[in-house]
Specification:
mainly alpha; 229 residues; 7 helices; 0% strand; 2 domains
């Protein structure tokens, strides 16, 4: 495996003409690393599919099956069509969170640019799905059930919808950046054994934050699929 410092140095050289900060360069570098890792794992898991899965195929089928069941329970049968989007976001966020537990590696989700990008994807997908499903009638979601309250409801709904990417990005960024800072402090003060409990807690935090992000994405898209009342 290429040492992370050499990997970062290479990417910082590529990004230097763009005047991207060091933290931003780290986030971009590790984002590409995680995308490559997920691509390689996908290829290996589906290289020789078997009717009786084993090894990596069995592991990935358990993960994918769990996500698919959760989508079906939360969004219904219509939600199955959005499985690729939600599963991709969930796996990317989870691996991005977990990679920060490896000494010398940086979690992209500890950078606000990464979390904001994921949140904007969810935000845009929500409204694209709504317009695709309901056409012009989708905008009834913003007017409320009483016509004379429509102007007031419109601004309230707009504020509510615009707050979604803000909350999605800040929640994930705050939790992962905070954990990363605490872990760095523990490693600086006592590099042996003392940071271990924080690393174990980091595994739990990584799974919880990926689950929350995926669950909110499903709820938002499900909301756009429903008929306006």
């Amino acid at each position: 495996m290429v040492h992370p410092l050499l990997f970062l140095k290479f990417f910082r050289t590529l990004l230097e003409p763009l005047h991207i900060s060091e933290a931003g360069a780290d986030a971009v570098a590790y984002t590409w690393l995680i995308m490559a890792l997920l691509l390689v794992v996908s290829i290996l898991a589906t290289k020789s599919l078997k009717s009786v899965p084993s090894g990596l195929q069995n592991f990935m089928e358990v993960i994918i099956g769990g996500i698919e069941n959760m989508i079906s329970e939360t969004m219904g049968e219509k939600g199955r069509g959005y499985f690729p989007l939600i599963a991709t976001l969930a796996l990317f966020v989870l691996v991005s969170n977990l990679i920060g537990l490896i000494p010398g590696f940086y979690p992209p989700t500890a950078n606000l640019n990464t979390t904001a990008a994921c949140a904007i994807v969810v935000f845009l997908s929500t409204h694209v799905v709504g317009i695709k499903e309901h056409g012009i009638h989708y905008f009834h979601h913003f007017t409320g059930p009483i016509w004379w309250l429509a102007p007031l409801m419109f601004f309230i709904e707009i504020i509510g919808h615009l707050s979604r990417p803000l909350s999605l990005s800040l929640r994930l960024f705050g939790n992962m950046n905070g954990h990363e800072l605490v872990l760095m402090i523990f490693f600086a003060l006592a590099p042996f054994l003392v940071p271990l409990p924080m690393m174990l807690m980091g595994v739990l935090v990584s799974f919880i934050q990926a689950f929350v992000f995926m669950l909110l994405a499903m709820i938002y898209i499900q909301g756009s699929l429903e008929e306006a009342h």
